[in-house]
Amino acid sequence: MMKKLTLFMFFCSAVVILSAAGVLVNRDNTTFQITHLNECSYEVNVNNQVAEVQVLNRYTNTSLSPISPRLYFPLPTGASPTSLRWAIGEQWHEASIAGVQENPQGGPSTFPHDFVDYILLMPLVFDIPENLLVNETLSIELTYVQMLNYNFGSVSLNLKNNYSSMQTSPLDVQSLDIDIVADKVIEGFEILDVNEQSSHTDHTATAHYHQYNSPATTNYRCVIHLSTSELSSWGLSTYLENAPDDGDQGFFLYTFEENAIPSNQNPNIRLNIVIDASGSMTWEDRLIHAKTAACWLINNLEQGDYFNVIFFDHLVRPLWGNMRAFDDANRILALSYVQNYEMPGLNGTNLSGALYTALSQLGPGNTPETNCVLLLSDGQPTVGATDTYNILRYVSIYASSDPHIYCFGIGSEVNYQLLNSLAQNYNGISIFLESSEIVNTITSFYNEMRNPITLNPLISTSAGTSDVLPDPFPAIYGGMQYRLVGRYSDLQGITIGISGNHQDTPVNYTYNYTLADTETPNMGFIPKIWAATKIDNLLIEYYSHHPQSQTALALKQQIIDLSIDFGVICVFTNFSSDPPAPNADETQDLIPIPLKLLQNYPNPFNPSTTISFEVLSDLQEDAEIRIYNLKGQLIYLSQ
User: Angle between the 416-425 and 388-398 helix axes, to the nearest 10 degrees?
Assistant: First the structure.
């Protein structure tokens, strides 16, 4: 008798809002029930642009019966969780890291819109093994590391503390304690929207904020203003007595920047400005800021350039069917189109369609103009091709014009791996920023985009180094910081060489750095930063293959092994309350998933949509399809 496969589908929509502390629900209750949050406290240490963040949440079970706690924690873009521990009473327990299922069993059958909006699309999910009794308090402490963006002298750290959509009653404690060390001169430091106690010297800064018995309604937006009058290169390193794997025991992180090289004449460009106009872009005036930046770009094009403007939601809405030469008449038409564009309503995100339109309009790769796509998006694709593998596959088909794709991800809900892959595969950059940073960052980058220092740099390092990343290294632009991470054996110092061409003229840069020969205090995050970068590099390769191919499955297992060995959570792993396996190297081979639900198309839809799913070619079983609405009600059954 054949087995029966059941396919469950839920159709829902989400409007993105900012997140804050984790949400604790009862996984044994099919009705949505959150646990009262008492405290949200942050302790942050920033060493140059590396942030180590520890957030403590305390919850009290104010219901009438015991609960089985499940934590949903919305992580910021690019953050790598490194440890999680919990306590009921005084006894703390440490979670291990394991390759676990993405969708844990049990829990509410449906979720309110506010919760879906709040936790974002890829939250950390963790089940506490003990029950929480009535009036008992549960403490959860999460630590993560994050490389902060440096955008032309400004470094931002955004800590989410707005919990008002989940709980309107007061918290006992809200606090933030932050310490900053920087090699560059600190010209200013501020935390927006709160009355903190802060101070700074040339190379250090601190801030303290404490609030008692009040609702959590404000995020912490920390901005560090660094001097741009001098170039900065700096390194951090540590040498472990025992490496987590079989590789070299030393780990280094090196950051550098260079000034732009003066040019008498910049090459002309063919620029497609692609702007996400889906419903979530209304939040924090994202679309308004994006339109302002687009108008600035249009006004600063040059004679000999070609351009177009493409807005997209569930539909793709270009200004023209083809790119047009920049002149005053076309400039005025484009400015009018951008300034008067109005969002048609809350809708989907057809990123694949927008990229197809933008790439198909570019000229052949042998034209004198440089082909460029500048993409601004704040969300996950929901219409057309929606998974990373298929979007990258479609882009590779239409990217015959040797394009440069520049990706600006806005907020915490972007597809981080997709934008990184697009930028690395197509000679661009990926920058992740908040709404208020859109205009300044894009206008600052534009002049550097027209005059890159070198587009295809070659990196060399001293003998005795290994696994130097990222690989390949991205194009280098003036005024931006770049980071190398790697490993080393028994070395006293390292020489890093960068070579390339600037408009057919060779350019070379050399940096020397003295390496640590012992384990450096307070530098335990460096191996984790290396591992997170290695995982990002492997994920770019993983998404270039079909997810069920043998190559992709082997890469996935390599990523899981790295994640477990170095204690860094990734998309394929999570925290587990179970103790680690006796031999972590002997992980089980991955088993191909027999059934995968694909994105329905079109979405949104009226009156019909097509639902597709994949099964393994050797699978011969009956299939049952069930479709539920947002209320959890069965609305369709097919066998």
Answer: 20
Three-state secondary structure call for residue 369 = coil
User: How many other C-beta atoms lie within 10 A of the C-beta of residue 42?
Assistant: 19
CA 611, CA 418: separation in Å to the nearest integer?
23
Question: Which amino acid is residue 394, in one-letter code?
Answer: Y
For residues 385 and 395, the answer to whether their CB atoms sit within 8 Å is no
Q: Which residues are bridge partners to 469 per DSSP?
A: 485
DSSP code for 29: -
How far, in whole angstroms, is CA 15 from its chain's centroid? 18
Give the residue, 560 or 80, on which the prediction is more confident.
560
Q: Name the residue with tokens 């809350």.
A: 346
The per-residue pLDDT for 13 is 25
Q: Which residues, at least 6 apart from 93, have a Cβ–Cβ distance to it below 8 Å?
A: 85, 86, 87, 577
What's the CA gap between 389 and 426, in Å, rounded? 15
> Among residues 474, 320, 333, which one has the least CA distance to residue 407?
474
Asked if 24 and 158 touch (Cβ cutoff 8 Å), the reply is no
Residue in the block written with tokens 């369609």: 353
- Nearest Cα to Cα of residue 391 among 598, 556, 103, 571: 598
Query: Whole-angstrom Cα distance, residue 516 to residue 96?
Result: 29
Give the type of residue at 626.
R
Give how far Cα 392 sits from Cα of 164, 311, 416, Å: 37, 20, 13
pLDDT in the model for residue 299: 97
Q: What three-state secondary structure class fits 236?
A: strand
The crossing angle, in degrees rounded to 10, of helices 525-542 and 416-425 is 70
Q: Is the pLDDT reported for residue 10 higher than 50?
A: no
* Inter-residue contact 391 to 352 (CB < 8 Å): yes
Neighbours of 262 (CB within 10 A): 7
Q: Which residues 6+ apart lie within 8 Å of 389 measured at CB?
A: 543, 544, 545, 546, 547
Query: pTM value?
Result: 0.76
Neighbours of 519 (CB within 10 A): 14
Long-range Cβ pairs for the range 231-235 (8 Å, 24+): 231/257, 231/258, 231/259, 232/183, 232/184, 232/256, 232/257, 232/481, 233/257, 233/511, 234/48, 234/183, 235/513
Question: Per residue in 227-272, pLDDT tens?
Answer: 887 777 889 999 999 999 999 999 999 999 888 888 777 789 999 9
pLDDT in tens, 278-335: 888 888 889 999 999 999 999 999 999 999 999 999 999 999 999 999 999 999 999 9
